[in-house]
Amino acid sequence: MPVDPIEIIEGRVAVLDRADVDTDQIMPKQFLKRIERTGYGEFLFYDWFRSGEIELDPHPILVTGRNFGSGSSREHAVWGLKDYGYDAVIAPSFSDIFYSNCTKNGLLPVVLDEEHCRAVASAGEARIDLDDQTVTCAEGVFKFEIDEDIKHRLVNGLDDVALTLQRSGAIDEFETAGKADRGPVTTSL
Amino acid sequence: MPKNLFEKIWDAHGVDDDLIYIDLHLVHEVTSPQAFDGLRLADRKVRRPDKTLATADHNVPTDGTPTAQLIADELSRVQVEALERNCEEFGIPVYSLGSDRRGIVHVIGPELGVTQPGMTIVCGDSHTSTHGAFGALAFGIGTSEVEHVLATQCLMQRRPKTMRIDYPGELGFGVTAKDLILATIGRLGVGGMRGYAVEYAGPAIEALSVENRMTICNMTIEGGGRAGMIAPDETTFEYVRGRPGAPADFDDAVERWRELPSDEGAGFETEVEIDAGGISPMVTWGTTPGMVVQVTDQVPDPSRMDAAADRETAERALAYMDLRPGTPMTEIPLDRVFIGSCTNSRISDLREAATIVDGRKIASSLRGMVVPGSQQVKAEAEAEGLDEVFRSAGFEWRESGCSACLGMNPDILQPGERCASTSNRNFEGRQGAGGRTHLVSPKMAAAAAVEGRFVDIRDWS
């Protein structure tokens, strides 16, 4: 799916000061039965919001603890965060699948060390420049790392599938060259 | 240059720069509908339906509902029907309700023989790492990536780092593969394997059956790992031999598979050693799989933890779990026991649990549920009379599915209920809002069902 290009994300910061927040908390299972891709914002952190355990404003930026998005691969968690209003999540680390899911949906995952995450949280406002790979806030300017290919796709709002389909020739060649290993697997059962 | 198992598979699947080829794509009802919609919107086809296989597992009822059309929960029905329709439209083989080949996606792949050494395997489910037990590179993906694989049979991937965890020694009496992986996650932490493809190796791993190896690879994701892998050997080849999806040129395939194990002297970015002989039966006490202790231990005391963040996390977990520091794990009373999930619902898991409960009754205060991993596992268990063993003991014997592991179907915990579960996640609300989950092996779950509390399986009889 094509997504909106990302250049600058700026504004107030919501803070969820917890580590290992899993995707079951971000988007509980009962909302995974829907077959749509939109409308998940109202179910975000459903149990935690409903019990009053946490409150989070839908600011452009969410800052949280290490290993954010662990557990289930459910992309619904990312759809929920984006739909609720977040354009970027800053954390000391993310689970691998969650990180990848973010990049497919225009939700910018930013890895900063714990100390810088705390600084952004206490500043309350920040400006993220993807091209520059910096987070600027009252507490300082912090550089972050991001894979060049992922950055290119985010900055340009590119559709991964369309990009890969342009390389169909290479896939054809790969399948032909390795014929013995590229036969049917599931249709001969 | 010597290569490790991961590097051999990765290198053999490089199509172009960051693009890797996928040999097997498993699909289920929950993470696929939006992907199929994406294909339709862009007028795209599925490139290789013959490398794709679908089943309904996550939210199917386990009460014997015979077809998708009869699922009582409307949202579940719509989702399973959408899977059936999408598969028909795009030409993908599907085993839905009513099929004797239906089951948990990570159980049926190996069972049908389509999971094979050397393959790249993906599925829109984090427990896809299970298939790495065959010496495959297998990992979970999100729905956007499901769409990408459907359309291109490839994935854009950054190469993960590699880790080897070596287990010298042998597992003691009553200690299982489940305890081994829980102990490993307890030691490395829930983020300890993040960014890595992990190879489990050493004598304790080689001695395990393929099904036990699947339990270990399955929970790699609970340590944050991208993929878990185990070198294929004679045990692996014998498991695949004769299954419907096994390669037609089986002997030639085995010759190719023999080349897969890591070469002598192959390097890994990180190496860890864990003494298998030192591992005990394990029970989780908190709300991540890393919050785990030996069954002989007590509920930990947060005030003795060094880091302030760990203390807070532990305190919150104990509050949720309604546990007091210092309580012996064996004194925690249980309301429910769940034997099932892609971690522990295969025939050998059910046999182990049945041996424990054979001729006994489960505690009267407790509800016990056995959910086989697939319809074939169920049939095999029934042919052996295991269903009778479980039923006479007081367990419910259900149809296959993910069931109470993630509680998308009606098999959920009620708020406050405490469950000994053979599944993989003890997150807050995982098995039902307000439910409290303790992860254990099938043997430990079965013995806990009989006593109504945890017991050390090693000295229990």
Structural write-up:
The complex is a heterodimer of chains A (189) and B (461). Chain A has eight helices and seven strands, in the order βααβαβαβαβββααα. In chain A, strands 4-3-2-1-5-6-7 form a seven-stranded mixed beta sheet. Chain B is built from 15 helices and 19 strands. In chain B, the strands form five sheets. In chain B, strands 5-4-3-6-7 form a five-stranded parallel beta sheet. In chain B, strands 17-16-15-18-19 form a five-stranded parallel beta sheet. A four-stranded parallel beta sheet of chain B has the order 11-10-9-12. The radius of gyration of chain B is 21 Å and the shape is globular. The model of chain B has no long low-confidence stretch (mean pLDDT 97). Classes of the chains: A alpha/beta (189), B alpha/beta (461). Chains A and B meet through α4, α7 and α8 of A and α2, α3 and α5 of B.
List descriptors.
heterodimer; A: alpha/beta; 7-stranded mixed β-sheet; globular; B: 461 residues; 5-stranded parallel β-sheet
Gross geometry of chain A: globular
End-to-end distance of chain A? 33 Å
Number of helices of chain B: 15
Number of strands of chain B: 19
**Content of β-strand of chain A:** 15-25%
Q: Please tally the helical runs of chain A, counting DSSP H or I stretches of 4 or more residues.
A: 8
Major β-sheet profile of chain A: 7 strands, mixed
As residue ranges, the low-confidence spans of chain B are none
Strand elements of chain A, count: 7
Give the terminus-to-terminus CA distance of chain B.
Answer: 53 Å
Q: Please tell me how large the radius of gyration of chain B is.
A: 21 Å
SSE run of chain A:
EHHEHEHEHEEEHHH
Q: Percent helix among the residues of chain B?
A: 25-40%
Strand proportion of chain B, as a percent range, falls in 15-25%
Strand order of the largest sheet of chain A: 4-3-2-1-5-6-7
Structural class of chain B: alpha/beta
Averaged pLDDT of chain A: 96
The largest β sheet of chain B comes out as: 5 strands, parallel
User: Which runs of chain A of at least 5 residues are low in confidence (pLDDT < 50)?
Assistant: none
Largest protein-protein interface = A-B, 58 and 77 residues
